[in-house]
Amino acid sequence: MRKTATIISLLLIIIVSNLSASSNGAETWEFLKPGPYEVGYLEMPVEIDSTIRLVNETFRRVPVAAWYPDVKKSRNLAKKKVPDKFPVVVFCPGVDGRLNSYLKMARFLTTHGFIVATFPTSGDRYTYGQEVYRWDFRQLQQEYLKLAATKAGYLQLADPNRLAVVGHSYGGPAAINFALSEENVDAVVSLDGTDICSDYTAKMAAQFPAYNPVNLTDPFMLILADASYCTGEKRSLDFYEGISNADAYIVELFKFRHEHFMYMSSYGNDPEIKKSFEIATLYLLNFLKANLFDDTKAAEWLKKSPGDHGLPTDLFEVKLKAKK
Predict the structure, then answer these.
(1) Helices 103-111 and 271-292 sit at what angle, rounded to 10 degrees?
(2) pLDDT in tens, 269-284
(3) Which of 79, 208, 252, 307 gets the highest tally of CB atoms within 10 A of its CB?
């Protein structure tokens, strides 16, 4: 009986440990190495004070989530120079984005010394089935981004003067538009954003006159998956090709789908998806380090070929277009 009880106790310990590891986002990666910082987390409510008439009025009050480097809980920092302030990265989600949709990317970036903030959009509960390409939804994204950047910038550890904006799906052009309108943005990233959809780009340009690639002066990275979500699969790189006043990168993932940026542990069952997610996150990390930390090693890393890094070249390719 005692032996049986011991075995049951050990099994419970293993189960609890596994659940704890899962809840903490623990996962074994081949190419991603976490940074030295432990991750802190908080949620901050914000109130939208806007003249925009919302389809769902409950979205005037939304939470902003922030992951931050928890210096006090981080070990092995004694011999390292720990900065007083950390740069801020704001994620603009796709239509179905929740607070935890980009948890894997957010936590990984935070371990390397970034404060990452985001906010939710909730698909049909947000739009009530109406077209998300309307001006009012796009304008609301800009207000959410401004509030998230402001709230995160108020944190004691934050340096609001070092700011990057990242957008996924229809958050991609929102991130670009934010960078075009805010002077303190240092880098902008589109994760398979609808800025590569010709119909969406045309609507953005019609509704926001500043939405022009010539106006973009912040370093830009476009991380591509498939283009199946574009209406009629009308994929266009016209915006990227039109950038002339900033360095611009394309990381194209061949075996990665649009929704995979919102990484779930079940994707780990497919090694190509998992490796592709690691590659996307690795390029995102070095791009942000190069432009928010002025990290020369990260900048040189970006210029090297994937083969130089020992990364699987059959899964992706990288292109750099230097500003003129």
Answers:
(1) 50
(2) 999 999 999 999 999 9
(3) 208
